[in-house]
Amino acid sequence: MIVLSLLSLLTVKTVLVGSAVFLLVMSYLQRKKYKLPPGPPQLPIVGSYFEFRKDSRLYSVFTKLGKSFSDLFTIDLGFWHNVVVMKSADIVHEAFVEKKEIFAGRETLTWKLKVFSGGNRDIIFSDYGPVWRLQRQMALKAFRAYVASDKLETFVRSSFDEVATLIEKETEPFDIDSHFQLLIFNIVCRMAYGKSYKIDEPEFVWLKDTVDKTMGTVFGSIIPSDVIPVLKHFPIQSSLSVKQLIKELNDFQNVKLAEHKKNLNSGNLRDIMDQILLLKEEMGAESDDNAKESLTDTRIRHTLLDIFFAGTQTTVDTLKWMIMYIADNPDVQTKLHKELDALGDDISGLRHCRHKLPYSEAIQREVLRMRPPAPVAVGHQALCDTKLGAYDIPKGTVLYANIMAIHHDPKNWESPEVFKPERFINNDGSLKEVDNKIWIPFSSGKRKCVGESVGRANLMMISALFFSRFEVSFPHGQKPDFEPAMAEFTCVPKPQKIIVKKRM
Ligand code: HEM
Questions:
Q1: How many CB atoms lie within 10 A of CB 424?
Q2: Which of 216, 247, 406, 486 has its CA 20 to 30 A from that of 31?
Q3: CA of 461 to the centre of ligand 1 (A)
Q4: Could you give the ipTM of this predicted complex?
């Protein structure tokens, strides 16, 4: 018996050591075959795992470990999870724009992301290919039509009025996070399903809570089934929660989809779900199989889920950073108030106001430069063997763009650490052309954010409504903290109190 157990232990050890040696040899051979981007010294097997344990912000560890490399470098996130990090604007442009077809893939998904994306049937995590392309085009068309209609503005105004009333009741300094969460979530619900919720309505409270829990479970941490996929078949709490949350969201969406199909009226499109259903109807019987597959019910449901998961936190975080930078820069606030006051009551058509409100637009750009809410975007995968800069990139390599580093690179920006909206304004007060090589909060190329038009229109309208009504400051003696909180893929401000006063 003892001999048997010793033998089995020896076998396990042998397998482990054997696998490690095999992987090291493979990695050595690969390095010989290709001229791969260099990397910092790293521990064998665990790579930089412990760096990420100390600081979970990918952008921050990428910046620290990439100091001695100019354009791109390789790094092991731990346990042979090698990725290439691009830190210069030129190299990101070469990959995402000049070689956009090659670098448009997505990383192979962990188990929970597969469940989340309905088996790669959303837009964010879907593989590059004809179905994804059509699904993305449909979403873009629906978003653009929606932004061009009056609906978005109506929804933003009424949601804002509700939340503004709550803000006005705050008599002490407070953290504005929950107010912005409510505001954006309600706008997104109206946009997606045309449903106008009261903020304390049970269905709204349930939906927000379920999306928040899913965000925490799916994006907040690594669960055992991600590391050992076979565990997905066992009743482990974390895997059960992921399945349950996604099932609840799918059931909810199915009800909405059935309602929308029943009441679809091409003369009165109520929301994005209607827009997508109409596009599907217009596709007709003669469309090819790819087109039909791109708009199955599962894909429509997951496109709508993308709006919740990609569109809410990014917008809330940008608004919170905006409030903080403006509270910390009274001169900027004075100029902003002046610009908004000059508009008087005429803030109609706010979504088209980029040129009517150049200073507000410059503030938005500067906030997105200083604190991009998706500072390393989402990993891209090389779809074939290729070259990038002076190096070889084998098929399957996962690459990240360090957007935060590019936005703070002194080669691109004068005094990059200073908050200065004026850098986007010409001497005559008009807006400068934005340089899309160095200003990339929405990334670039084939996988560029599909919701940019919606996100930017929301930010513009909310900031104009907010600062027309309120002024902000930090409590006397409180030092604002601009260091982002610990979060892998996002750039979130730490909780802090702010004074919001109604303007006279
Ligand atoms: C301030 C607001 C936002 C910012 C800064 C932002 C930024 C980004 C970034 C950096 C990416 C990754 C691009 C890449 O992989 O290279 C992305 C992807 C995406 N975003 Fe946004 N986003 C914002 C708002 C929104 C909104 C409002 C929506 C939906 C209405 C949205 C939907 C998406 C989708 C579906 C993708 C995946 C695109 C694809 O893989 O083809 N985003 N976003």
A1: 21
A2: 406
A3: 19
A4: 0.99
Structure tokens at 256: 């909405």
The rounded Å distance from CA 185 to ligand 1 centre is 16
| Residue whose CB lies within 8 A of the most ligand 1 atoms, among 86, 140, 313, 449, for a mutation test | 449
Q: Is 449 known as a binding-site position?
A: yes
Q: Which atom of ligand 1 is nearest to the CA of 379?
A: 15
Instruction: Please identify, by atom number, the ligand 1 atom nearest to the C-alpha of residue 446.
Output: 41
Q: Tell me how far apart the alpha carbons of residues 73 and 83 are, in angstroms, rounded to a whole number.
A: 8
* Buried-state track 378-417, b at ≥16 Cβ within 10 A, e below 16: bbbbbbeebebeebebeeebbbbbbbbbbbbeeebbeebe
Task: Read off the pTM.
Answer: 0.92
CA distance 377 to 401: 7
User: What spacing in Å lies between the alpha carbon of 417 and ligand 1's midpoint?
Assistant: 25
Tokens found for residue 145: 């039509």
Rounded Cα distance, 280 and 299, in Å: 12
- Interatomic CA distance for residues 370 and 320, integer angstroms: 13
Considering only CA atoms, which of 71, 108, 96, 107 is closest in space to residue 449? 96
- Residue 213 Cα to ligand 1 midpoint, Å, equals 20
Q: Which atom of ligand 1 is nearest to the CA of 191?
A: 30
CA 196 to chain centre: 25
Q: How far apart are CA 35 and CA 387, in angstroms?
A: 9
pLDDT of 330 > 70? The answer is yes
The predicted-structure confidence for 397-444, as pLDDT tens digits, reads as follows 999 999 999 999 999 999 999 999 999 999 999 999 999 999 999 999
In tens, the pLDDT along 289-318 reads 777 777 899 999 999 999 988 999 999 999
Backbone angles phi, psi at 381, to 5 degrees: -120, 140
Two tokens at 18?
Answer: 């054997």
List, chain by chain if needed, residues with CB within 6 Å of any ligand 1 atom.
Answer: 123-124, 136, 143, 306-307, 310-311, 314-315, 318, 373-374, 377-378, 441-443, 447-451, 454-455
The CA R_g of the chain, rounded to the nearest whole Å, is 24
- For residue 364, the CA-to-ligand 1 centroid distance in Å is 16
